[in-house]
Amino acid sequence: MKIEFDNVKLEIPESWKDIKLSEYEQWYMLKPENRFEMVQFVADVCKIDAKLLMQSPTQLFNIISDAIQFVFNQDFEPVNKCEIDGVDYFISFSDKLTLGEYVDIEAVLESESNNKLTELLAILCRPVGEKYDPDLTEERIAKFKNISCYKALPLISFFLLKKRKSEEILNHCLTVTDQAELFLKD
Description:
Blueprint: E1 2-5, E2 8-11, H1 21-27, H2 35-46, H3 50-54, H4 58-67, E3 81-84, E4 87-91, H5 99-110, H6 116-124, E5 125-126, H7 137-145, H8 149-185
Helix pairs in contact: 5-6, 6-7
């Protein structure tokens, strides 16, 4: 959506296709709790100056915030692949990861990087049959930074699904263990 206000042209994203993963990583952890934080959040999502929004009519802010309501809906069907530049990239499964991948993943998680999602996808996603090569990571980071959230968020959702399933299995296992201990006591 294009808006012109006081000789300033604004381009407002209207869907996940309009937001790159690198942009998303700058604000996805923010949870606005008051009106000022909401103004800052909307400015960050739209890549505009918060001062401009503060000096604009309330109606403009309402139009912009209505247009970006999609950012609060992050329910994506999990997928384990995405296409970038005509090449399908698949997520490597944890039981097939190499020691190098584990070490690099741990380094990313412990780093102060603002692009952890991009870096993790660059390590874990590759074409079918390709072995992990840390020398390709920087090239892959550049590719994943520039994909739309429309493609990236279903991949991230895949990891969240796996985490949720793992927690369910752990919960069931703990329940069975507790019941077995009670049975032994009886």
